[in-house]
Amino acid sequence: MSLISRLLGRHSDTRDAARPLWHRVVEIAREKQWYAQCGVADTVSGRFDAVTLVMVLVMLRMERDKHTPGGTTDDSLIEPSVRLTELFVDDMDGQLRQSGVGDLVVGKRIGKLMSVLGGRIGAFRDALGQDDATLIETLDRNVTLIDGADKARLAAEVRRLHAQIDALSGEALLAARIAR
Length: 180
Hints:
By secondary structure, the protein is mainly α. The chain is built from 9 helices and no strands. Helix 2 packs across helix 4 and helix 5 packs across helix 6. The longest helix has 25 residues.
């Protein structure tokens, strides 16, 4: 939404409903345990990976509601998932610009980040349904870790968070009621 539209009060930001969930995703990704106990690198890359990991778990939960058991489509989380993705893009755009990436390069970098997010959604969709060894391998490929990271603990934490998010109703998820 443009600044002029906001000043004139013409349209509300359609992302407002997803904003609490986005803030909760970032809040969870910043928790010390990911870095201190699980071995995610406390670097720009590691923090991006943590945000993306939590985002993937939320997106997988939102994706699950697209089809109900009767074969019908439930659109209740489709729109919010789009808005959540827009907030992710806006935040990453701001982070890139703040780190000194110029206007001409930001678009390409955002495209790469969206590709990373999409690839990770696919990778974790598969890995979460398999054994711990597969999940650990997926985490190893997709998360920047420190030497000696406790990959088994990281996998257990990811499974715990995934189960917690997956158990939420659509309403509770949108309200960002992800307890920790």
